[in-house]
Amino acid sequence: MNTGIVFLLIATMLLTSSPGKATPLPSREKLDSLVNEKAYQPARHYLQLHLDHHVSNQQWDSLATCLYLTGKINAELYGTPKGIKEAEKVIRMMKDNNASALALHNALIDFMHFLDEYAMVQKSYEVTLKAADIARSTPGFSVLETANTLYFLGAGALALGKFQDARMHFSKALSYYLKDTLASVNRLPDAYNAMGAMMWSETRLDSAQYFFDKSAKAIRNTDKDSLEKSYLTAIAMSNMGLIQQSMGRVSAAIQTFEESLRLYNHVILNSDDDNLVFRSMNNRLKALTSLAAIQNDLGNYQLSHVFLLSVYELQQAISPPGDPGIFRSIINLGESEMSLREYDRARQNFQKALHQIAETPGEHIYWKA
Predict the structure, then answer these.
(1) For residues 310 and 288, what is the distance between their CA atoms, to the nearest angstrom?
(2) Is residue 247 classed as helix, strand or coil in its secondary structure?
(3) CA-to-CA separations, 189 to 1, 195, 204, 268, in angstroms, rounded
(4) DSSP secondary structure string, 86-119?
(5) Structure pTM?
(6) Each residue of 157-191: b (16+ CB within 10 Å) or e?
(7) Closest Cα partner for 158 from 187, 217, 209, 200?
(8) For 121-154, how does the pLDDT look when each residue is reduced to its tens digit (9 = 90+)?
(9) pLDDT tens sequence across 316-326
């Protein structure tokens, strides 16, 4: 008999004869692999095995590790509302069985990530508020985790256009990061950057420049590799370009955006980190869009249109169907064609964008308007 089968039989006998012991947990690697392959039907089976295992063994905290996949798998199979409903069931089960505050917090953060992925902006913000309440009210809760949650809360408020709330949350996040600069060394650049963005939105340009400079300096102290630092520096430079543009220093802004593009391209060409490359590609599009806006303001409508056409083509290349970035780039193209007085092409692109918005899950009221 195969020794592997003998081992399995012995393990089964031991578990059967000892009902007080935990049953074996199915492979998480298999579940993750199926999701990555978009094989959601078999993935649902493996997910249910995990859920059943944790419930039967009363491992209520461990249910948090299944939260994101519960939402995603059900959303892909049956639609976003079903994904939300099933994820909420897991959280409710954790609460009813007195899961720890940390586990509930982590489950809510994973729920937030799921909701963000499906563009459920308002719901995501509400969930993050609950996670922040847990972080701030639980004695001994990690300073870093509290800061991260407040940062997520700021990002959620910003996505909803709640700029005063966003500034308040980002400011509180920064204050928490500064309580433990050693643990927060890799998060401080983002926190300073967020505050700079808030100052810029309020046209407080000197304050914005102060925070963006702090962000650029904080990047040097991170323990990230040279390509990650290049990526972060490119983001800081893009933000400085926006400040320069707002101050009327157009030539300096163009040079700054071009340097940020050089850094993004350097990362894209040399990094083996797929996630870093993807983020660089996405942010490269923002820098190109900013250059297009400058050229449009200068009256160089044709050059602006060339930049925006590149953004649209690159966006299509890296984005899955239904990504909001696609219809945003189409709208920008339409506005560019309005400047060129190519009204028929502009109308076609606006109609195309409306069609894309209608087929994209989530709340996109601003872009539809």
Answers:
(1) 8
(2) coil
(3) 59, 10, 19, 21
(4) HHHHHHHHHHHTT--HHHHHHHHHHHHHHHHHTT
(5) 0.73
(6) bbbeeeeebbbbbbebbbebbeeeeeebebbbbbb
(7) 200
(8) 999 999 999 999 999 999 999 999 999 999 999 9
(9) 787 776 677 77
